[in-house]
Amino acid sequence: TGPLGQGLANAVGMAMAERHLNALFGAELIDHHTYVLASDGDLMEGISHEAIALAGHLRLAKLVVLFDDNGISIDGPLSLTDSVDQVKRFEAAGWAASRIDGHDPDAIAAAIEKARASDRPTMIACRTTIGFGAPTKAGSEKSHGSPLGAEEIAGARAKLGWSHPPFEIPAAIRDQWRLAGLRSKAAHKAWNERVKKLSAEKRAEFERRCCGQIAKEQLTAAVRGVKQKLAAEPKSIATRNASELALESLVAAVPELIGGSADLTGSNNTRPKGMKVFSAADYAGRFVHYGVREHAMASAMNGMALHCGVIPYSGTFLVFSDYCRPALRLAALMGERVIHVMTHDSIGLGEDGPTHQPVEHLAALRAIPHLTLYRPCDAVETIECWQLAIEDEKGPSVLALTRQALPQVRKGVEEKNRCARGAYELAPAEVERPAVSIFASGSEIAIALEARKLLGDRDIPARVVSVPSLDLFLAAPADYRQSMIGDAPVRIAIEAGVRQGWDAVIGVDGVFIGMTGFGASAPYKDLYEHFGITAEAAVAAAMNKVSAAALAS
């Protein structure tokens, strides 16, 4: 799984998905165990603590961890760094746990059978010897990450009585594997027969979800309905509230959505009204209370997506994306459809101060290949970004949303998703060749529109381009990118984050109005004034550039 501990937390997500689908479709269709092979290193990583506690709390009885308890780490004996009694640790988290000889097949089989009958998740500590059979390297870190070598291999063969040539599987072992395959084939045939007996409607829904296909007509209708409501009654609300408004329609249209939050439900607004909680008492619920476990949350979501049948989404503050990063990176690497709602996306969150105010986070997330970051400017862009995230089968999405209310700048009803290519002209100039192009995202769109008006009052024509997804925009066809960037001599980008990434739009000579350091604790309007993220600052910078261009010509 790459970084240690990720596979364990992935498995928790797989077990959660299994329980959820079992509750929806029944044990005749979904009723399987999830097995984990875990190392000492997996159990030392911090994510293991989060994942183990979550699995125990949810009583994921079909989760079985086989712990390779060999007492060796890369640096040497495990006693150098760890003295935890893992059996007691798991038991304290609500697991069943036991110790066995990891080289005894009968003991392993008996422990697994016992685990399969348990009403709790199970950890089996399998005491093993690393490099088993090697004459001088058995039980040593020397057999951990490097080849044994010809001499050690020969000695191990002799000790184990293994006379077969390299890469040859003895007939007796091969026959056992083939018998196992035949048993699986028979079980699969019986399972297919049960699927065929479903009603046409239930079978279609089951197969659709297993194949990861979205009910696009339902999704499109839900998005259209939200847009129509917003056109009829425009709302100046925080985009986190706009997201909640969108979810009220989306969770009905896309039943595979399973949401959650890392103990910030009321702040992230990720649980729409009527959404039942996923719990040990009701696995049919679609909202997970992950607790303060951002890393395990993101990793478990990867496991859910890998399992198939669900589309997980989460909730936390954008600044805590740092706690999720290894799992976000793996989601992008694997191309998994997971959606992260990350609110309180800038200094706009106000008095909580610089520890909670994201500054570098937008740029850091945009730097992850195949992850798409969305930062909508109003309620209409928010529903459009949600639609794009749900439809994206090739990678994870992050929705960066505000705490503070924003004006609704798009008030008409448009069938087209204008966010689909990452940027679009929101407010054109009143002349064919504007002097200034202003690019902005999220909460800074209102500032950009005010700057355009002030420049117009000074007879300096300007246009505003909304960039809800810089990632999508930079991936758009070159001719579209050029049409949006335009040929105005002055280019300005406004975003309450660092400049990194924006030079691809405004160039190295462009003006960036944003953050160059950490935030501060104050009401958000005062912070915008203090850090110079204002329409007046944009106007002053534009006028300086226009004057300089005039002198140069």
Please tell me about this protein's structure.
This protein has 553 residues and is of the alpha/beta class. It folds into 3 domains: 6-128, Thiamin diphosphate (ThDP)-binding fold, Pyr/PP domains (Rossmann fold); 216-400, 3-Layer(aba) Sandwich (Rossmann fold); 424-552, Rossmann fold, CATH 3.40.50.920. 44% of the residues lie in helices and 14% in strands. The chain is built from 21 helices and 17 strands. It has helices at 6-25, 40-44, 46-58, 86-92, 105-116, 150-160, 171-196, 200-210, 216-232, 239-253, 265-268, 294-307, 321-334, 361-366, 379-391, 445-457, 470-475, 478-485, 503-506, 524-530, 535-552; strands spanning 34-38, 63-69, 72-73, 76-77, 96-101, 122-127, 257-261, 287-289, 311-317, 339-343, 372-374, 397-400, 424-427, 436-440, 462-466, 490-494, 511-513. The strands form 4 sheets. It has a 6-stranded parallel β-sheet with strand order 8-7-9-10-12-11, sandwiched between helices. α9 runs antiparallel to α10. The longest helix is centred in the first third of the chain and has 26 residues, at 171-196. It is elongated, with a radius of gyration of 28 Å. The mean pLDDT is 97.
The CATH architecture of the largest domain: 3-Layer(aba) Sandwich
CATH class value of the largest domain: Alpha Beta
The low-confidence runs, each spanning 5 or more residues with pLDDT under 50, are none
State the end-to-end CA separation. 59 Å
From the helix content, strand content and strand pairing, which structural class follows? alpha/beta
User: What does the radius of gyration come to?
Assistant: 28 Å
Percentage of β-strand residues: 5-15%
User: Kindly state the mean pLDDT as a whole number?
Assistant: 97
The strand order across the widest sheet is 8-7-9-10-12-11
Which geometry do the CA atoms define?
elongated
CATH topology of the largest domain: Rossmann fold
Multimeric organization: single chain
CATH superfamily of the largest domain: Thiamin diphosphate (ThDP)-binding fold, Pyr/PP domains
Q: Helix fraction? A: 40-55%
Report the biggest beta sheet as strand number plus sense, adding barrel if it closes.
6 strands, parallel
